[in-house]
Amino acid sequence: MIVxxxxxxxxxxxxxxxxGRAAPAAPPPRPLPRSPATTLRVPSLKIDAPIVGLRLGxxxxxxxxxxxxxxxxxxxxxxxxxxxxxxxIAVGHRDTKTGPAVFAALAQxxxxxxxxxxxxDGRTAVYTVDRVKxxxxxxxxxxxxxGPSRRPELRVLxxxxxxxxxxxxxxxxxxxxxLTATR
Length: 183
Fold this sequence. Notes:
The protein is mainly beta. The protein has 1 helix and 12 strands. It has a single domain, classed as Beta Barrel (Sortase, Chain: A). The strands form 3 sheets. An 8-stranded mixed β-barrel has the order 3-4-5-6-11-12-10-9. A two-stranded antiparallel sheet has the order 1-2. The model is unreliable at about 1-20 (pLDDT under 50).
């Protein structure tokens, strides 16, 4: 493969790149300082939703946005804020008694899609989806989902699997993403 080498916008030479080697990836963006989340966008799913801060309840479980506000996304406010180093957590409903909610189509988000989290300070943390997994609630892998990270990462969660009127959904959909840009 022939690769042109550019220096300050001027083409200065050509060289052969060994087959099978990709050009080096851009360095990851620097983590951002703390600033609470205000909105979450998933352009590929046409989601643009306001965020409400959430905390752990007395049972040590993360709360959810109010059921009467199905288009809200919850952000774990005691964890990393958008773009901060560590594993940030966003949650939302798949549906409510009134119909589809903010994350109705979350399981369809594709690897490589972007998730944008706007912040109080006006900046935006842009995450790229690495994978989407569905986990049974009975064997939910807490460490894999909530465990610490050395880089800025995001987990977006909603309900999944089968629905039972008395016990709710059997699974959770989890989107794993990492910070790839800031604006």
